[in-house]
Amino acid sequence: MNDSTEDGARDRAPRARRNLQDAVVWVVLGAIILVASLSMDRLESQGINPYTAPGLLPGLLGVAMMCLGVLLALRSLGEGATRHTPVSVSRGPDGSGHGQLTRVLALCLIFTVALLGHGLPFWLVGAIFVSASILTLQQAQRKAAQKRLELREIASAVAIGLGAGGAITLIFQTLFLVRLP
Amino acid sequence: MFSGLAEFGQAYLGFLNPLSIAYGLGGTFIGIMVGCLPGLSATLCIALLTTLTIKLPANDAILILICSYVGTLYGGSRTAILLNIPGTAANAASCADGHALALRGEAGRAIGIATSGAFTSVLFGVLCLAAFTPLLANVALSFGAQEFFWLALLGVTLSGSIVGDDPLKGWLMGILGLFVAQIGQEGLYAYDRFTFGWDQLSGGIGLIPALVGAFGFSEILTTLADPIERKIVSVRDSSLPRFREVLQYWPTVLRSGVIGVATGLLPGVGEDTGAWMSYAAARAFSREKEKFGHGSIDGLMAAETGDMASIPGHLIPCLALGIPGSAPSAVLLAAMIIHGIQPGPMLMIQHPQFVYDVVAMTSLAMVSILIFGLFMVRPLLLVLRIKRAILMPIVFLLCTVGAFAGASRLFDVYCMVAIGIGAFFLRKRGYHMAPFVLGLVLGSVLDKSLRRGLVLTEGSIVPFFTRPISMGFAIVTIVTMLLYIPACRRAVRRAVSAVRISG
Fold first, then answer.
1. Rounded to an integer, what distance in angstroms lies between the CA atom of residue A132 and that of residue B497?
2. Which residues neighbour B323 within 8 Å (Cβ) at sequence distance 6 or greater?
3. Of the candidates A106, A100, A26, which has an alpha carbon nearest to the alpha carbon of residue A63?
4. N or C: lower Cβ tally within 10 Å for chain A?
5. How many structural domains does chain A have?
6. Dist. CA B123–CA B131, nearest whole Å
7. Chain B environment of A121 (Cβ under 8 Å)
8. pLDDT in tens, B437-463
9. Integer-rounded Cα radius of gyration of chain A
10. Which of residues 11 through 50 in chain A touch B, CB cutoff 8 A?
11. B487: contact with A, CB 8 A cutoff
12. Residue A31 is part of which domain span?
């Protein structure tokens, strides 16, 4: 029983620490919102009713955010956020999930910022993104099976990419007259 | 009364044409496919279809969206049963019993129960939708700014309290959503708030891009962060709808239908609440409690009936008050506004036929899920075999289209990506997106209602607490927040025990 209680406390402390970090962020954000709301123009020169000042609700939201942030901080402190616990060495099965995620995130950002809306047709940009993403996402499986990238896989990814880009363009732009980037 | 019946008849006849039937079946089909895929939600499906149907006539567009809404929740039961992963959050309550039945070789039976339960509960919900929407709209005509203020705040508070297991984090997300809704030109004087001189922000953060980011892109990142692909249980037995079991478990079906519609009426309460409350009630009344979680037909029937009945339930406040009951109904609300229909108390006066049209659309969705449940179970399951590596990039591509199509701005795509990344990291730290979305939708209502209310009362907040309906909403909101405090919860439990003992 004592071991399980200690284990529970050990699990709670890191979570409480994370909550305390979040609480600080919430309080700071709430304060920024409150200050920005108070410094907003009250449009007195337009003779508006003072109860309709644009900064009214945002200011109240800032206060509410700060109050709830403080509550979160107090709760975290009560749950042992400042308690020292030994760092656990357990990890997930491997780092593959996070590595894959980082690569996909990078692809999404490159697609959105560098490729989209820069003159290339959407079907082509879409095809490039989908093909590159499929090959990247299948990399972990190839690595686990110790297989090399084959031409067949590249051709398959490119075909799927072209199909997806083309189909989306056809359905949205041609059939339903929706403007694409 | 007879004019109402005539309008119902006119609405049903209006949809009995090949094009409308095709739209209805198509919308339901897309919804079922999206619902079958874990990680893709009803909110994302409706948001993407809103952009696809933006050029269609209003009735056709809303028909597709409502059918896809119903189809997504119905389709989500597939993965709950076969993969033990809910296709949408609303199907989580079906996982335990549905998957247990599947492991016993009764996957088809479980799917058949989901079909018959869904059909029956949507039928019940449609009757409630037809009966209560005009009544609620009539009552809402007497609502003033103070009532709408509390209703908006109640929606965010309830959503934060019920979604997830930490109300404090839920309320913080609700406040964040309310704040994000304030960015841009405000509604009374067109004053730019929190734009920092950036013209792109004057138009505010679009609802569709924010929803696509919070429920689409963040789900993609969450799915890809989990490298495990789950094993699908095969369907070997018959998956035909089991109406005999609906009759056998009729108390559960009726009870769950009532609970589903009632939870749908509450602003901010999602479909999963209807499912879980129905499940809990079925277990409380069951003589075979030990079977729950281990393949109970009663449990599965309750979960599926509760979540499907909440769909028409959510449409009632959406149409009558202009306050969405859930994230998917928030997107529906946005779609209606895009197509020139303003939901709210004036809807029954300005567009009375539209309410009857929505009843007919939901009925068409109900028939569509029966058709797909009869004929298309196994073919639809093929979509579960699509690998994540292929599906997720295509979904992201659709997300960019969905974010862009509303206003044709790349800025909206950047907002979608930013909100999606933010939502992903917030979810990892235990914050849910539903209160954020509700806050985003209700922020404008809250802002205008507060300021108008204060103008009418010349700055006094007393009428916000003394007007009868306002007082009711205020009490519920404040009690919901007070129940978070352990001392208050203990006091309530002691009071309830004392009442039970004296009774």
1. 62
2. B148, B151, B152, B155, B267, B317, B442, B445
3. A26
4. N
5. 2
6. 13
7. none
8. 889 988 998 999 999 999 888 888 888
9. 26
10. 18, 22, 26, 33, 36, 40-41, 43, 46, 48-50
11. no
12. 2-78
State whether A104 and A168 are in the same domain: yes
**Maximum distance among all alpha carbons in chain B?**
69
Tally the domains of chain B.
1
B496 domain-assigned? no
Determine, yes or no, domain membership for A86. no
Question: In this structure, are residues A66 and A28 in contact, taking their beta carbons and an 8 Å threshold?
Answer: no
Distances (CA, A) of B44 to B68, B288, B399, B425: 11, 38, 8, 19
Task: Count CB atoms within 10 A of the CB of residue A142.
Answer: 14
Low-confidence ranges of chain A (pLDDT < 50): 1-3, 89-95
Question: Which residues span the domain enclosing B43?
Answer: 10-466
Top residue of B212, B401, B449, B464 to mutate, by most chain A CBs within 10 Å, is B401
User: A148: burial class by Cβ within 10 Å (0-12, 13-18, 19+)?
Assistant: exposed
Q: What is the pTM of this model?
A: 0.86
Q: Give the separation between CA B338 and CA B148, rounded to whole angstroms.
A: 22
Distances (CA, A) of B117 to B81, B89, B102, B311, B377: 14, 18, 17, 13, 15
A72 and A105 share one domain:
no
Structure confidence by residue, pLDDT tens digits, B372-399: 887 777 777 777 778 888 888 998 999 9
The verdict on A78 touching B (C-beta cutoff 8 Å) is: no
Q: pLDDT tens digits, residue range B235-267? A: 666 666 667 777 788 888 899 999 999 888 887
- Answer whether residue B424 shows pLDDT above 90: yes
User: Do residues B244 and B108 touch, judged by C-beta distance below 8 A?
Assistant: no
Q: What would the pLDDT profile of B171-227 be if each residue is shown by its tens digit?
A: 999 999 999 999 999 888 888 999 988 888 888 898 889 988 988 898 888 888 776
Task: Output the CA angle A95-B422-A102, nearest 5 degrees.
Answer: 25
Give the residue, B28 or B388, on which the prediction is more confident.
B28
Whether B480 is covered by a domain: the verdict is no
- Helices B92-103, B107-140: crossing angle, 10 deg rounding: 160
Choose the final residue of a domain: A78, A109, A132. A78
Residues of B with Cβ-Cβ distance to A138 under 8 angstroms: 389
Q: Which of B439, B418, B57 is nearest to B212 (CA)?
A: B418
